[in-house]
Amino acid sequence: MPTQDILINWSPQETRVAVVENGAIQELHIERTLERGMVGNVYLGKVVRVLPGMQSAFVDIGQERAAFLHVADLHGGPPKFEARAETPLVPIERQVFEGQTLTVQVIKDAIGSKGARLSTQVSIAGRMLVFLPQDNHIGISQKIGSQELREQLRARMLLLAGSDPNNSGGGFILRTNAEEASDTELAEDIAYLRRTWALIRERAQANPAGTLLHQDLNLAERVLRDMVNESTLTIRIDSKQQCDALKAFGETYMPRAVDKLEHYRGERPIFDLFGIEEEIERALARRVELKSGGYLIIDQTEALTTVDVNTGGFVGARNFEDTIFKTNLEAAGSIARQMRLRNLGGIIIADFIDMLREDHQQAVLAELKKQLARDRTRTTVSGFTQLGLVEMTRKRTRESLAHMLCEPCPTCQCRGQVKTARSVCYDILREILREARQFAPKEFRVVASAAVVEMLLDEESVHLAGLSEFIGRPISLSAEPTMNPEQYDIVLM
């Protein structure tokens, strides 16, 4: 397993975390104070609408948009740790009604125009365990592979959960870092999670609908809980106050991570020193360069993300087939890294360069799967289609990096291109003709960008003069530097 360093850049308005492996950034996580994600939060919600046709309901949790609750996410449906049941679910209209209050948990943040997705099957994550207060199941992380060890852990958990003096029932899932946990550590986690659930129930009884009952850990705390493992060498944070707070948190929940915490005292910003700012800029670009001279083109749309692989200037192999194979092999690793770095989710289509040999296709596919196996987010990969495309799905629980840091271009309105100056000139000439048929001003004045005005005065001057003669009115021009290439005004004088 490659070694990793974790860099935390903290400010009152934003926390940024970069996971660096062998000098290259692999993951980037950003949490803004005013835009903090809601996944894991528990609310007291109120059902505002039930939609039998969609087998779903909209629930008011005190946010700007009502959240979405599907019948499969109601308590009593298939548990989160099991496959979906074959038996039909009880219709949602027989389980919930408008005006009903429900304790719900956010399982997906609001994305785009879609509200947050909810579940009534609440789970609370601890350091080594996930508590399922409404179930009595003991589950084991699938990453703990030994069947003998799984049975031992299950037996220990049954004893510890039953002997807890605050035993209020409920089930548990053992996380990967519970593999080597002592009975004392497991018992402490059990007690903490049950106390947390008891507090949630107390708040639910004392507060109105729309109240936040429990909030998940902040990003810096989740780093210690979820990202630190044996391969982590250091966790560097550039805030003394937050470093002390993380140490206090770690001593309670992650004592093995405390020794890896370091307060970065350098004069240069921590992300500048390790080249993270440049990597962020590159992660927002459409084109990604490969070391061999090839490149990727990554386009995000509402429905899916496409990745196109090109050889570019790479001509180093002995023959063209080897050139294609080596480019695709390098692209497979880069695609997996970009998916993590950009937090691409949903459907992803990779268009590798066509390969004639079956063994080359299988080698590229194996490399892609190998690199994706390092991803913390679940990813499913299909083989090559008849068109030579590789289809993937990656679980989407929050906005991608581009959607978090950027907004639609006000000039092109998300088209990715603008009209040429000549096209805008012809739009203006047609609009003047349209206005001249309805009004009879003394003069038409065109206010447009400098490039459009320059073209009307130069290459299109003959057409402008011809139109002026045809409508019998003078046409004057005025350049406005603040206008974008497609903007213009026609003023009736």
In brief, what are we looking at here?
This protein is α+β, with helices and mostly antiparallel strands and 493 residues long. It has 13 helices and 24 strands.
Task: Describe the protein's architecture and organization.
By secondary structure, the protein is an alpha+beta fold. The chain folds into 4 domains: 4-36 and 218-276, eRF1 domain 2 (Nucleotidyltransferase, domain 5); 123-213, 2-Layer Sandwich (Ribosomal Protein S5, domain 2); 284-398; 421-492, 3-Layer(aba) Sandwich (Hypothetical Protein Ychn, Chain: A). Helices cover 32% and strands 26% of the residues. It has helices spanning 147-163, 183-206, 219-227, 240-253, 255-258, 270-273, 276-283, 320-342, 358-372, 401-405, 421-436, 450-457, 461-471, and strands spanning 4-11, 14-21, 24-32, 42-51, 56-60, 67-70, 101-108, 117-119, 124-125, 129-132, 138-140, 171-174, 211-214, 232-237, 261-263, 287-289, 295-300, 304-310, 346-351, 379-384, 389-394, 444-448, 475-479, 488-492. The strands form 5 sheets. Strands 16-17-18-19-21-20 form a 6-stranded mixed beta sheet, with helices on one face. A 5-stranded mixed beta sheet has the order 3-2-1-14-15, sandwiched between helices. Strands 4-5-6-8-7 form a 5-stranded mixed beta barrel. Helix 1 links the parallel strand 11 (138-140) and strand 12. Helix 1 crosses helix 2. It starts with a strand and ends with a strand. The model is unreliable at 78-85 (pLDDT under 50).
